[in-house]
Every structure is written in structure tokens, then in C-alpha cells.
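Task: sequence design from structure.
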């Protein structure tokens, strides 16, 4: 394995399972220092053990990204632990079966899949800028195409559907990435790009989904030619983190090649409105970076 990522510090959320776990191993094998974030200490420690002989290093940082307090606490620990952060990769994600609110009173899917990346980027932005050239990488999904924004009911207080909530959270991740890329001043030398990893039935993403969704995912995974392997999905994420192209390129949405984001994700007015709504929900000034 080439050790081309030696001396690079990569913060990777959702590193304890599925796509993120395979990405963490690949990055460590290439020499990176990986700050691996996940909820489960056992899974985190087994990842550290699995990568003990790799060229790079994996350190586990436990955090449940559902609340702003937890995201801020994680950011403080990362700033304490790492003098530089070269890549901030938001890969953690979940899907639910019923409407759940976090301790902040926010719909859980939106909180973890979108608001946590928004706030963590805000909290770590200065360290990224000080480490530049740097990158923000977001694991999105092409399922965002089935979603629309409803700014009067962003959190599905009325008429909740779990798959719609998941799709809208992923629409938010794409719109956030595009808006972040547009806002970052050129002089800061930070790129922001997002990736569709494919439909990957073999991960744990749908473990908390409804029975029909789990059956559908399991069945789809058995059909030859349907779905993407977790290895291929991880390679797509690692590409945005590691390939030289994405040191310069910003505001891209890619899968196994370039993809065009949905009209809803690209709409500048919607992106701006999401940015402001997100800032209000997490309690920061929307005028950043
Ligand atoms: N699988 C697919 O078909 C597919 C398709 C498109 C996009 N994606 C996206 O790919 C990313 C990775 O998903 P995956 O398929 O690899 O699923 P996965 O195996 O369930 O992995 C999800 C990761 O996110 C972490 N996570 C979930 N909720 C969290 C929370 N509240 N706080 C902190 N960490 C949390 C999990 O940590 P724990 O180990 O602690 O639970 C785990 O490491 C997600 O963003 C997902 O939306 C997946």
C-alpha cells in the first residue's frame, strides 16, 4: 500500500460500521491519522485493534451526534487532540422507523444526518483553514432526488414518513455541501464535495428501519447486479478524501463518476434558506465561514 497520506489527519464520522469502517481501514493503510468517530465503544475499539499494524493510526472518539451539546463536546476534544485537521469527512448517518426527537427537540434523522455535519464543520472550520489546503467530504445519497424542502415543516412534525425524512436529510447534505463550497473564500483553500456511495444493502444503515424497508433492502441485496459492494462504496468516499483532484475541485457531487445534484439541492434560494434554518436550529450565527 502506498503511504501517501502520512501526516494527514482525517476526522471521519461513522467510522465504526459499514462504508465508514472500510474507509477508515483503507485510510490507515495509506498512512493517515484517522480520528474515527462512532457511538459504540466496542466497535470503535475493535476498529483500532484491526488497524494496529497499519502504516497510519486510528484513534477512536466516542460521540452520539444527535445533540448539539455532543457535537460541540466532540469538536472540543478533536481540537485538543489534533493540532491540524486536513480532512473532515461526514459519513455518519442513520435511518429510523418512526418519528423520534432528540434531547434538543429536533427530528432525529435531520439532527444526525444534516445538523451534526453543519455544526461540526462550523466548530472545526478555523482549524481546517489553519491546516489548509483542507477538505470537507460529505457522504450523501442519490435518494435525495425523491425529496423536496418544506421550510414550513422541515422536520415532518405533520405526516411523518421515515424514508421521506431520510431522503430529505440527504437532500440537506447535498445542499449544505454546495452552499458551503460556494461560501468558502478562495484564500481559505478548503474544498467541499459530496459523494453518493451507491445503494449498499450489506451495511447496517437500515437496522432501525421498518420491517418492510428491511425486507426490501435484504431482498434487493440478493438480486445479482443490484446494489454496490461496501468496498466499492468505501473507495468512492476515500477518493474524495485522498485523490489530488479533490484538493482543487469543490462543489462536486460524485458517485462512480460525476453526478448532477437534484434541482432542489442546487437551488441557491433553497440552499440559503436551509443554511439559515440550520444555523438557527444549532444556535450559531448564519454568517459563516
Ligand atoms: N447503505 C446505503 O445503501 C447507503 C446509500 C447512500 C448513502 N449512504 C450513507 O452512507 C453513510 C454510511 O452508512 P452505512 O451504509 O455504512 O451504514 P452503517 O453501517 O449503519 O454505518 C453508519 C455509521 O454512522 C454512525 N452513526 C449512526 N448514528 C450515529 C449517531 N447518532 N452518532 C454518531 N454516529 C452515528 C454509526 O455508528 P455506530 O457504529 O456507533 O452505530 C456507523 O458508524 C451514511 O451517511 C448513509 O446515509 C448509505
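Answer:
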Amino acid at each position: 500500500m502506498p503511504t501517501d497520506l502520512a501526516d494527514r489527519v482525517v476526522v471521519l464520522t461513522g467510522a465504526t460500521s459499514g462504508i465508514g469502517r472500510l474507509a477508515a481501514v483503507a485510510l490507515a493503510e495509506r498512512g493517515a491519522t484517522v480520528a474515527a468517530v462512532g457511538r459504540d465503544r466496542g466497535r470503535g475499539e475493535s476498529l483500532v485493534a484491526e488497524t494496529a499494524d497499519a502504516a497510519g493510526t486510528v484513534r477512536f472518539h466516542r460521540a452520539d451526534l444527535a445533540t448539539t451539546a455532543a457535537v460541540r463536546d466532540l469538536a472540543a476534544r478533536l481540537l485538543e487532540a489534533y493540532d491540524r485537521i486536513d480532512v473532515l469527512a461526514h459519513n455518519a448517518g442513520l435511518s429510523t422507523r418512526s418519528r423520534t426527537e432528540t434531547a434538543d427537540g429536533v427530528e432525529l434523522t435531520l439532527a444526525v444526518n444534516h445538523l451534526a455535519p453543519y455544526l461540526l464543520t462550523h466548530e472545526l472550520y478555523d482549524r481546517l483553514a489553519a491546516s489548509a489546503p483542507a477538505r470537507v467530504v460529505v457522504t450523501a445519497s442519490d435518494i435525495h432526488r425523491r425529496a423536496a424542502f418544506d421550510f414550513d415543516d422541515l422536520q415532518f412534525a405533520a405526516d411523518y414518513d421515515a424514508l421521506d425524512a431520510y431522503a430529505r436529510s440527504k437532500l440537506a447534505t447535498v445542499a449544505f455541501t454546495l452552499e458551503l463550497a460556494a461560501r468558502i473564500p478562495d484564500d481559505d483553500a478548503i474544498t467541499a464535495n459530496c459523494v453518493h456511495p451507491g445503494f449498499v444493502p450489506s451495511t447496517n444503515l437500515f437496522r432501525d428501519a421498518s420491517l418492510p424497508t428491511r425486507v426490501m433492502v435484504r431482498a434487493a441485496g440478493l438480486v445479482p447486479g443490484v446494489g454496490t459492494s461496501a468496498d466499492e462504496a468505501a473507495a468512492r468516499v476515500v477518493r474524495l478524501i485522498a485523490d489530488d483532484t479533490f484538493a482543487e475541485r469543490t462543489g462536486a457531487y460524485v458517485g462512480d463518476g460525476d453526478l448532477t445534484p437534484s434541482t432542489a439541492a442546487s437551488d441557491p434560494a433553497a440552499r440559503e434558506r436551509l443554511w439559515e434554518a440550520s444555523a438557527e436550529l444549532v444556535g450559531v450565527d448564519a454568517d459563516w465561514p
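The first helix runs from residue 18 to 29.
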